[in-house]
From TrEMBL:
Molecular function, one GO term: cellulose binding
PROSITE patterns in UniProt: CBM1_1, CBM1_2
Reaction catalyzed: [(1->4)-beta-D-glucosyl]n+m + reduced acceptor + O2 = 4-dehydro-beta-D-glucosyl-[(1->4)-beta-D-glucosyl]n-1 + [(1->4)-beta-D-glucosyl]m + acceptor + H2O
Organism: Coprinellus micaceus
The UniProt record lists the keyword Nucleotide-binding: no
Location of the region described as Disordered in the Swiss-Prot/TrEMBL record: 266-300
Organism lineage string: Eukaryota, Fungi, Dikarya, Basidiomycota, Agaricomycotina
Protein name, entry field: AA9 family lytic polysaccharide monooxygenase
């Protein structure tokens, strides 16, 4: 089923320039590691080509910390629109940036210095179209959970350093001619335990093509299936697409969302560096559930001189600015025109 472009939905599209996002925090067995081992993505703007070197980890800041984890551990990556803002009041990635969520890992010699373009990546988690009645994408599940996406480190992989790569592919402006927005972000971990498995790998760039069926796709139509880009995961592939309404119930208790951002990580079993910042979770100031309609109110409106770069500048039912403060307004499909560089 196509998405109904209600007044609310159209209003939220207006906010799409500021709806860009980055993966930021990491959780290890329920402990908030904050940005301790994050390769901080320098801007919340997307990578716009699958063949760019930045498809691996976007443009990032180096980080000398590597978080200790164990094979089999349960981890969560956490995405937000603005760096350092962990509030559940704002959608993790707004502006109807619907599409798949995936997580990859790559074994490297030193996670703090590894070049992500020469690493060999295997997928460990994926979600695509969760339900087709009505269409509900993994990004919407991410938003239901204040940006949290959970996965497991395979219990049989070799011990050693790994990069973790989390990614959202936003397809709101995608079509046969392009328009997909890639939001990758990477983390640095040192895996202990494990076994001898070394899963088959792909490269970034290399794993995707810009005309892959799950990338050059118009999601503003009735979808029954959706092909998640990249290889089959090592472990459990995504479940088949549900044909009943996807429950929007959060699995993450958003009332426990911390506001602070730890920069060091202390494993539950001890033995690692002391925190330099408070890791005590702060209670959010207001109601926790993500509210798309109120999110819109909190978004800065488009600049007076027109829509921002990558912002919406046209489309069926769209009521926002039709000129671009930066870039050229380019029609991507009947529902979405965007300011492109
Ligand atoms: C990160 O480190 C690499 C390798 O030393 C270097 O080439 C790159 O310029 C550094 N990036 C930043 C943002 O400092
Ligand atoms: Cu965006």
């Amino acid at each position: 089923m196509r998405f109904a472009l209600t007044a609310t939905a159209v209003a939220s599209l207006i906010a799409s320039a500021s709806a860009h996002a980055t993966f930021q925090q990491l959780w290890i067995n329920g402990v908030d590691a904050g940005v301790a081992c994050t390769r901080r993505v320098q801007s919340n703007s997307p990578v716009t080509s699958a063949t760019s070197n930045q498809i691996a980890c976007n443009a990032y800041d180096n980080n000398s910390n590597v978080c200790p984890v164990k094979a089999g551990d349960t981890l969560k990556v956490e995405m937000h629109q603005q760096y350092g803002d962990r509030s559940c009041k704002n959608e993790a990635i707004g502006g109807q940036h619907y599409g798949p969520v995936t997580v990859y890992m790559a074994k490297v010699d030193n996670a703090a210095s590894a070049n992500p373009n020469s690493a060999g990546w295997f997928k460990v988690s994926e979600g695509g179209l969760m339900s087709n009645n009505p269409d509900y994408f993994a990004v919407q599940v991410l938003n239901d959970n204040c940006g949290h996406w959970q996965f497991q480190i395979p219990s049989d992989i070799q011990a050693g350093d790994y990069l973790i790569r989390a990614e959202v592919i936003a397809l709101h402006a995608a079509g046969a001619g392009g328009g997909a927005q890639f939001y990758p972000g990477c983390y640095q971990v040192r895996v202990s335990g494990g076994g001898s498995a070394s899963p088959p790998t792909v490269r970034f760039p290399g794993a995707y093509g810009n005309s892959d069926p799950g990338i050059a796709v118009n999601i503003h139509q009735d979808l029954t299936t959706y092909k998640i880009p990249g290889p089959t995961p090592y472990g459990t592939p995504a479940a088949t697409v549900a044909t009943t309404k996807w429950p929007t119930t959060a699995t993450w208790n958003t009332a426990q969302q911390p506001a602070a951002n730890p920069t060091t990580y202390v494993p539950a079993d001890g033995g690692s560096p002391q925190p330099t910042t408070a890791t005590v979770p702060n209670v959010p100031t207001t109601t926790a559930a993500p509210q798309p309609t109120t999110t819109v109110v909190t978004q800065p409106s488009a600049p007076a001189g027109g829509a921002a770069l990558y912002g919406q500048c046209g489309g069926s039912g769209y009521a926002g600015p039709t000129t671009c403060a930066q870039g050229t307004c380019t029609k991507l499909n009947d529902w979405y025109s965007q300011c492109t560089p």
